[in-house]
Design a protein that fits this description.
The complex is a heterodimer of chains A (about 170) and B (about 280).
Chain A lengths: L1 H4 L3 H23 L2 H17 L10 H19 L19 H6 L3 H11 L2 H13 L3 H8 L3 H20 L1
Helix pairs in contact in A: 2-3, 2-4, 2-7, 3-4, 4-8, 6-9, 7-9, 8-9
Chain B lengths: L5 H9 L7 H23 L12 H23 L6 H12 L7 H10 L11 H11 L1 H4 L1 H6 L6 H38 L9 H7 L2 H19 L4 H13 L3 H14 L7 H7 L3
Helix pairs in contact in B: 4-11, 5-9, 6-9, 9-10, 12-13
Classes of the chains: A mainly alpha (about 170), B mainly alpha (about 280).
Chain lengths: ~170, ~280
Amino acid sequence: MLAYRGGDAGAFDTLYRRHRGALYRFVLRSLKHRAAAEELFQDVWMRVIEARSRYAPQARFTTWLYTIAHNLLVDHWRKKGLALVSLDTEDLPSESANPARQAEAREALARFMQALEALPAAQREAFLLHEEAGLTAAEIAAATGTNEEAAKSRLRYAMAKLKAAVDD
Amino acid sequence: MTEQDPKISRRYRELGGEEPPRALDQAILSAAHRAVEGAKHARAAPLVAPGGRSRWYFPLAAAAVIVLAVAVTVHVQREQPDAEAPGEVLMRDRAAVKPESAPQPAPARKLQEFTPDPKTVPDSTAASRGREIQEQQPAASAPAEASKAPAPPTPATDEARMKRDEAALAGARDAARKDAGRAAAAREQAAEQASVQAAPTAPVAAAAKPAPALLRDEVARQSSALAKFTAHSPEQWLQGIADLRRQGRHGEADKELAEFRKRHPDYRISESMLEKVEKK
């Protein structure tokens, strides 16, 4: 990122190749809607480009990148009239919990997916940050603007629920 | 660590590695390249004329710089004649005189030779001694003639001329000081409406003017006199006429005085000097 800030356009290509897949999946699995996910994914990178001159290597670039993504997600939820923080509680049963999907849920993967989607937004975000971006609890806390204990707690709850889905 | 569970991670990976569409990749990458190129162009051409309301900034700044430069140039040109410090003039004056007066012991000896009896000389000042030398060697000592006919000067005549010039300068200073004192006294007199006889002395002038102003005037007068010293100043000229008059060369003195009045029609000759230069 420092090289890109100094005018090396090739450095951005390297950064983008390294993070594009993980970030895209993080956004896609947070929003569940492909079109909205693509739009937000593009917005994240545009923010990175715009903020290059202000970038200071205080933390890992990954943490900085996912902080931007988290802030845009919060904005997105706010526009929809939802709050990411309030979704720490259990989601209401989704439409995927209908009998047809229950039948398909026999397949482990589908069950896992269902469990992931059923996670509260904050727990899902913590889990995705951990799995996709490889962030530690402290880095998750930094990226999402919370304390480390809360990040650990969210991650632990998410893991427990997903483990239950896997073990089923 | 409780957050780490390989089974969950493996299952999560099985969901599939979805990737952003290629078109999205291209859009983002080209935007990143455009941003860097734009920044490079902006750095390379910092004087690109801005648009909108700030369009006139550069022409205005350029005009202001030109006006300032012209004003400074004119000011410097006007100030140049006064910029020469009195010290520099003095140095230049001394440098001009020095080569002539280099052999100093010789003039002293010659002075002794020309002086018939040191005891009989009533005035032992350098100025009076110089005047005696002038009387003995009239061709070399007359200032008007000396300036007109630049004969190779002898050390004795140089010394004499230097002394005479110093005396002339002192006389001119005195006259100027007296003039200033007289003017100040007249002002005071008019202001008070008193019929007290004015005493044109230096202390009155000092009382009328604040000390720094007096000092400044004195410095200016000295510098002015020194600057004109080599260029035949009016005071020097008048002193020369006075010398001619004293030597009884009234014809030459009249001629010089007429020429002086033609050249300096607005010059106020002090009364003391007037007594010396005018025919009685």
